[in-house]
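Most newcomers find our protein records easier to grasp once they have seen one. Sequence and backbone structure share a record, each on its own labelled line. Nothing more is needed to start thinking about how sequence determines fold. As an example, a complete record with its sequence and its structure tokens follows.
=====
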Amino acid sequence: MNRLAALAVLGLLLAGCREVRVKTYSTGMTSVSGGNQIAVVRNGHDLGELGIRAPVRFNHEFGVLLVMGPHTDTGWRQVIESIRANDQRVRIVAYERAPADGGEPVAPYRTYTLWIIPNSVYRIGSVLDVVTPGGEPIASTVLR
């Protein structure tokens, strides 16, 4: 009987400690104009307006998109150093790395990183901040 009670208690504890799976779905380039931004994407239309196609299941997930740039030479890429989160704030430390070879001239583009996140962690009023490793702000938004 004690074993059964211990298993029941363990089951309750594990049910309260669910792990949130955040996937970095993709990184790449988009030709949409603008500057640095962090966007919360809740439907396919908004994702398409940013020039990105991804299989986000919007009835179960949402996307968070970090877009940086613009650049006029090839080879730029985003580096995500860390992501820290609590109930009120998500802080992303990121920067862009220039191409080692100097790149080739191209039409203006912006780099992006797309994270796919379960709807269960969406908290209205939470702040998403993106900063450089030195703490300088890059972009910010509030979940609405």
Summary: Residues 2-16 form the longest helix (15 residues).
